[in-house]
Specification:
The complex is a heterodimer of chains A (about 60) and B (about 150). Chain A has about 60 residues and is mostly helical. In chain A, about 60% of the residues lie in helices and about 0% in strands. In chain A, helix 2 crosses helix 3. The longest helix of chain A is centred in the last third of the chain and has 10 residues. Chain B folds into two domains: about 70 residues; about 60 residues, no CATH class. Classes of the chains: A mainly alpha (about 60), B mainly alpha (about 150). Chains A and B meet through helix 2, helix 3 and helix 4 of A and helix 1, helix 3 and helix 4 of B.
């Protein structure tokens, strides 16, 4: 699944560790999602989208990475 | 915009302090997970020593106490595993499940293979402790491999 996580994070000047702490997952989990190695659960996808004040569709597009 | 506090979508591990920076919250989270690891591994280590002493006869126990201790160990193992799995994120749960699957598969293949080989006189009689040790080693190698793969990206 494609996502804009790295871009959104860079726009806010957040490190992977900063985002990981905000959504309560490990830094490895953020890295795995950013690189498309892990598709987050619906619950985690909602948490990520909320952290950026965006909808899920604005962060994840559902296509293959 | 979805509500932040009242929704039911948060996973059980979500219990963060919004006044802290994300990096501070991550540090707290790491300490929390480390504590869970230490308690879980420590309990397993102590349980294993007690079981080893009981099995070796060094710890004299009546059959009732032995079975009660074994039941307590089983309940503790299940409870601590559930406690751990509910406090880590979903990537950690997936890595644990894959490593457990590798361990289970190894256990079945080693056990069945060794029994079949022994039945044909190609190997000595199966040794339970050796099979358990091999299972543990393969599970740990699988887990370490998954973690290494994630770190190397």
């Amino acid at each position: 699944m494609n996502n804009r996580l790295r871009l959104l994070r860079a726009e806010r000047g957040w490190s992977q560790a900063e985002l990981a702490g905000r959504i309560d997952v490990s830094r490895q989990a953020v890295n795995a999602i950013e690189t498309g190695k892990h598709d987050p659960s619906l619950s985690l996808a909602f948490r990520i989208a909320r952290e950026f004040d965006l909808s899920i569709e604005q962060v994840f597009d559902g296509g293959e990475a | 915009m979805l509500p932040r506090k009242e929704d039911k979508m948060n996973s059980p591990e979500t219990n963060t302090n919004p006044s802290l920076s994300g990096e501070d919250r991550l540090r707290r989270r790491r300490r929390r997970i480390l504590a869970v690891w230490i308690v879980t591994i420590g309990a397993g280590f102590l349980g294993g020593i007690a079981l080893g002493l009981a099995a070796g006869g060094a710890l004299s126990l009546s059959p009732l106490f032995f079975w009660a201790g074994l039941a307590l160990l089983a309940v503790g193992a299940v409870a601590s595993s559930l406690w751990f799995m509910r406090r880590v994120d979903e990537v950690e749960v997936i890595d644990n499940l894959w490593a457990s699957f590798a361990g289970l598969l190894a256990h079945m293949l080693i056990s069945a293979g060794w029994v079949a080989a022994a039945a044909r006189g190609l190997a000595p009689a199966p040794d339970v402790l050796s099979v358990l040790l091999a299972t543990l080693v393969i599970t740990v190698i699988a887990y370490a491999g998954l973690k290494l793969r994630r770190r190397l990206g």
